[in-house]
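User:
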Amino acid sequence: MNAPIVVINPNSTVAVTEGIDAALEPLRMAGGPAIECITLADGPPGIESQADVDSVVEPIRRAVEDRDAAAYVIACFSDPGLSLARAATPRPVFGIAECAMLNAMTRGERFGIIAILEDSVGRHERYVCALGLESRFAASRPIGMGIAELADEKKVMARMTAAGAALRDEGGADVVIMGCAGMARYKGGLESALGLPVVEPSQAATTMAIGAVRLAEAK
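Assistant: Predicted structure:
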């Protein structure tokens, strides 16, 4: 049996992993690579601060080294440990933020990012600049809710819709990225509410991983 694509949730919240797994179901297909979602048990409950980001870099490296895969996806919008993970394996490693931004630029001219907390906004802005994408970036807007609160569907949808509308109407965004893997379940509703393409980052990264794996198999 061929090795799967392994999607790593760097936080320890199993419900987030389950949401990612459900979002990736449309990408599972006969003849395609298996997609396995795992939870980093020694990660924090949510990646909500720079300290959280830094704390999972080494555990992600170990997870990549310890588990055979055709490709890896780091399912956290801060792309923690991406460079270190890539150095630890000859297999391709995809960060969901980097992939989401690349995907967004194929769907519109200016992308906006919906963040969980105000602290996340600065990290998003720094990463956009590091990738050299400032000219295509509208803004990042927080919903003021942590990972543990993302199960409150009514409240989350209301805040995400408000943040997305501000990105559209004030920032000029014509495509919106959900800036947290824990938001995966809200993609369809948000797309309908905003009337804009919405990029779910784990889907964006896993789609790229599938392409890389299938092309490698075809050599």
